[in-house]
């Protein structure tokens, strides 16, 4: 079942204690979004981990991060321009569609998931220690419009569950499949198989199904949810959807890890002492100097500046 008590955010919410957080995002070609992304994340606490999809960059690099890519999906071939009657195909390229980036100050190990990479699916994962517990993070990308005859192998879910007992799992994925479980009108073949595999392994969807993660690109499309976040411990993850796509057609997802007791970091707030506010306000009014025009004051400052 989905956990739907979520919200929008322009950027990760302010917090105390440098709580680890994860950026999940289908960036729709990382090289195009990299300059803006670097400007944005330098104004926040840097994400501990990026879970990216559609990176399309085999030379992906971000300062301070270790990069994990296992490209298996071939880039679509294009016909090169030749004289009439002569055609040739360009060599197949593998740019990488699923990537995991880890802050290199955190000890971590890449998981061996390469056997689940196919021409229509990429699976990349790492394990690291956060909040004194093992956290397994996986980025998955599945090509859109995969035929029913194409096998999408979900057995990596069972493999991870059995080989990493006790770990907190976080899967940030673009499965490009539909199901009413995440707010789409109808179930698809691969969507039904995905839901069954997740439920069989006790993983929960934590998206807000009322918040689509992808913006439609033409009138015949609806905004939809293809970017899904699954976990085995939904109370351990706070999920928010970004309010800006940052140049992609997908919104970023902000994932905050709660503390060991299931508590999020406390937010800093401003406190107003109303008695002192009223006293200062009265004193300000009594001491205001006018230049003969009762509608204008020579000297003023908001009373709340004193607090």
From TrEMBL:
Residues forming coiled coils: none
Domain Endonuclease/exonuclease/phosphatase residue range list: 136-252
Organism superkingdom: Eukaryota
Record-linked InterPro entries: Endo/exonu/phosph_ase_sf, Endo/exonuclease/phosphatase
Signal sequence segment: none
GO MF term list: catalytic activity
Name assigned to this protein: Endonuclease/exonuclease/phosphatase domain-containing protein
Organism: Haemaphysalis longicornis (Bush tick)
